[in-house]
Every structure is written in structure tokens, then in C-alpha cells.
Write a structure and sequence with these properties.
Elements: H1 3-13, E1 15-19, H2 24-36, E2 41-45, H3 52-57, E3 64-68, H4 73-81, E4 87-89, H5 94-102, E5 107-111, H6 114-122, E6 128-130, H7 139-144, E7 153-155, H8 164-169, E8 175-177, H9 179-203
Parallel strand pairs: 1-2, 1-8, 2-3, 4-5, 5-6, 6-7
Helix pairs in contact: 2-9, 4-5
Pathway: Carbohydrate acid metabolism
Organism: Lysinibacillus composti
Protein name: Bifunctional 4-hydroxy-2-oxoglutarate aldolase/2-dehydro-3-deoxy-phosphogluconate aldolase
Length: 206
């Protein structure tokens, strides 16, 4: 999938499931549950041990699989070589941007300030992750779009089924969601993850 197609898919789908597992097996189960429930844009975080095994498990999947919690250029290249179709980090890194641009892979860095956002835009980032979004309110997007009307923001961290539409209505191009899947898995296993995913998909833009 080409870079513009990946970006368009993220914008069209609106929901990105951020998957953090205590093991590759757990992350695979969480990912399968999210996909079955209707969320097909997946961010596999590098906090999951041996996460490359999870990438391998979904190499032939129709889902859009990206890498999250990427902290340096070496990890970005590792993710891309293992099939990541987009790369996400908690903060902006020029070095990661260079690697992603080299391979024509979308890079979504975490930004909280106008200065960070401008730096990321200058480095070729098309979608910026507002992280942690729990520190802000949806009105922040409108404020940012005053001086930066072209910026595209994906809030992550503190997003849930009850507030995600507030963010999207405020101008977010997509939202990152995750902790609900881990809680669902802990409480009810695979089927609970599927149900949580369906709830998000069902509540989207109601």
C-alpha cells in the first residue's frame, strides 16, 4: 500500500487500535479481537516483548498494521523491515522522520505544542499524534488550527467510546484507542475484546 493510501485509510477508518501485550501471544489475541470487532487499523507497540513476531503473524492480513512506541531510527527501520505500514512515536524525532521518508512510510509523532507540531510538519509528517490527549480538551484542536489550519491531529491517550466523537467533531482526523482492550481481555478474554471493538465501531459518529 502506498503512503497516500495508508494515510487515507487512517482518515477514513477514524479508529486506530493501540495494542500493548505482555507477550506476542497476548498481542496477537488482542489484535485478532480488534479486527474481528471491526477496527482494522492496528498500532503494535514496541513495549510488547518480541513484537516482531506479531508483525509476522499479520503479514498477510488485510488490516493496516503499524508500529507504535518507536523511540529511535533503528527501531523505526526494524519495524518497517518487518512490515509496518506506518510508524508512531510518543514524541517527534527528526531521525525517525528521515528513515520513514526514505522508505515512504507515514510517520505520526506525538506533539503537544505548536513548536513541536511545526517541526514535525517541516519534517514531512502528515498526521500528528496529540499525546497524551487526556491533558487536553477537544477545543484544543480548534485553537491549533488557528495558526495551523492545515494540521491533521490524531489524539491518543485518554480516548474512550464516550468521548471519541467529541474529538472527531472538533476536527480530529482519527483517534488512537487502547487501554479498553487490555481491560476487556483481562475481564473476559478474546470475546470481550471483540465486543469492545464493536462498541467503538458502533458508537463512532452516532
Amino acid at each position: 500500500m502506498r503512503k497516500f493510501e495508508v494515510l487515507q485509510t487512517l482518515v477514513n477508518e477514524k479508529l486506530v487500535a493501540v495494542i500493548r501485550g505482555n507477550s506476542p501471544e497476548e498481542a496477537i489475541t488482542l489484535t485478532k479481537g480488534a479486527i474481528e470487532g471491526g477496527i482494522t487499523s492496528i498500532e503494535l507497540t514496541y513495549t510488547t516483548p518480541f513484537v516482531h513476531e506479531v508483525f509476522t503473524a499479520f503479514k498477510d492480513s488485510q488490516a493496516l498494521i503499524g508500529a507504535g512506541t518507536v523511540l529511535d531510527a533503528e527501531t523505526a527501520r526494524h519495524a518497517i523491515l518487518h512490515g509496518a505500514q506506518f510508524v508512531v512515536s510518543p514524541s517527534f524525532s527528526k531521525e525517525i522522520a528521515i528513515v520513514c521518508n526514505r522508505y515512504s512510510i507515514p510517520y505520526l509523532p506525538g506533539c503537544m505544542t505548536i513548536r513541536e507540531m511545526v517541526a514535525a510538519l517541516e519534517a514531512g509528517c502528515d498526521i500528528l499524534k496529540l499525546f497524551p490527549a487526556s491533558n487536553f480538551t477537544p477545543s484544543f484542536i480548534k485553537s491549533v488550527k488557528g495558526p495551523l489550519p492545515h494540521v491533521q491531529i490524531m489524539p491518543t491517550g485518554g480516548i474512550n467510546a464516550s468521548n471519541m466523537n467529541n474529538w472527531i467533531d472538533a476536527g480530529a482526523v482519527a483517534v488512537g484507542i487502547g487501554s479498553d482492550f487490555n481491560r476487556a481481555y483481562k475481564d473476559g478474554g478474546y470475546e470481550a475484546v471483540v465486543a469492545a471493538s464493536r462498541k467503538y465501531r458502533g458508537e463512532l459518529s452516532k
